[in-house]
Amino acid sequence: MSEPEPRTYVEPVPEFEELEVDAPVVGIVMGSKSDMEAMEAAEKELAERGIRSETRVMSAHREPDKVADYARNARLRGLRVIIAGAGLSAALPGVVAAHSDLPVIGVPLTSRTSVAGGLDALLSITQMPPGVPVACVGVDNARNAAVLAARILDI
User: Fold this and answer.
1) Which letter does DSSP use for residue 4 in this model?
2) Where are the alpha helices (DSSP H) in 1-155?
3) Phi and psi at residue 107, to the nearest 5°
4) Most buried in the list 16, 42, 93, 107, measured by CB within 10 Å?
5) What is the mean pLDDT of residues 3-28?
6) Which of 96, 66, 67, 95 is nearest to 81 (CA)?
7) E strand or H helix at 102, and its extent?
């Protein structure tokens, strides 16, 4: 038997390094379809800045495995920041942060059953345990979440 040929390292072609990849870099998630109207402000702000995003609806309570899978695979799919909007107990941002090492920005959302105009969601998002950081913007302020994501991305 003959010896296998030694493998050689091939440098990447410089022209390919500058090619635009159309994969999203920011994930926008929310716990309910009813949150879509408020969270569209983030999507719009990112689009105006030329930042690609994807939007998904998934509940931390009703679909915990789906949320965990999304968060675990986010970096592999090219995401660099996740914006998570939720109301009431607002568990979604924390659950996403527990399953990902990406920066997570929480958007506390109001609903018809919110306490004190979204204070319940605000406190839920900001009171995270050590080692599970979630940045938090103002109540119903998805636009600011997108501005913060752009700053994190340095775009």
Assistant:
1) P
2) 14-17, 36-48, 64-73, 92-98, 119-126, 142-153
3) -115, 105
4) 107
5) 67
6) 96
7) none
Separation in Å, CA 54 to CA 57, 74, 77, 83 = 10, 11, 11, 10
pLDDT value for 13: 54
Cα 23 from Cα 63, distance rounded (Å): 25
Q: How far apart are CA 62 and CA 80, in angstroms?
A: 25
Backbone angles phi, psi at 52, to 5 degrees: -75, 140
Task: Calculate ∠ Cα 104-108-110, nearest 5°.
Answer: 155
- Is residue 102 within 8 A of residue 79, CB to CB? The reply is yes
Q: What is the pLDDT of residues 56-110, one digit of tens each?
A: 999 999 999 999 999 999 999 999 999 999 999 999 999 999 999 999 999 999 9
Going by C-alpha positions, the residue among 65, 72, 83 that lies closest to residue 24 is 83
Mean pLDDT of the residues in the chain? 91
